[in-house]
Amino acid sequence: DALAARDARKCLLLLGRMESVSPHALLAMCTTRLRELVCARSMADRGNPRGVAAALKAPDWRVKNHGAWARQWRPEELRRALASSRDAEQAMKSGSDPDEVFYRWLVETLKR
Fold it and tell me: I need a labelling partner for 25 at 20 to 30 A (CA). Which of 4, 12, 64, 91 fits?
């Protein structure tokens, strides 16, 4: 949620509190959320902001904040974040330090 809300401070605070979470898993979760935000942004731009739950096949309560979060991102920022998550995953699997790659990706993604 902190990623979707573009709250870098909260993201870093929560990241520091996590004990044994794989950066690979974190990146996958973040990428999923970014895809959901792309959907929410697209639905809002098409004039159907309430259609997010149906499009994502998720309960309304799970996506209730997606519209507000999506408005904090420009479409090109979401596209860039998804593309850079692909690059980060590739770097993690190519021998770079996964924790460092994830941290750098997170900070870069949250910049406005």
Answer: 64
- Output the CA torsion sign for 22, 34, 15, 105: positive
Residue in the block written with tokens 């792309």 = 38
Q: Could you give the dihedral angle defined by the CA atoms of residues 86, 56, 63 and 107, in that order, rounded to the nearest 10 degrees?
A: 0
pLDDT > 90? residue 97: yes
d(CA 65, CA 1): 9
87-96: buried (b, 16+ CB within 10 Å) or exposed (e) per residue? ebbebbeeee
Task: Please report which confidence band the pLDDT of residue 19 belongs to, taking 50, 70 and 90 as the band edges.
Answer: confident
Query: 3: which 2 tokens?
Result: 């990623």
d(CA 65, CA 63): 6
> Which pair of structure tokens corresponds to residue 92?
């993690």
Q: Cα dist. 9→16, 80, 91 in Å?
A: 11, 21, 25
Rounded to two decimals, the pTM is 0.90
Q: Which residue has the tokens 């699997």?
A: 93
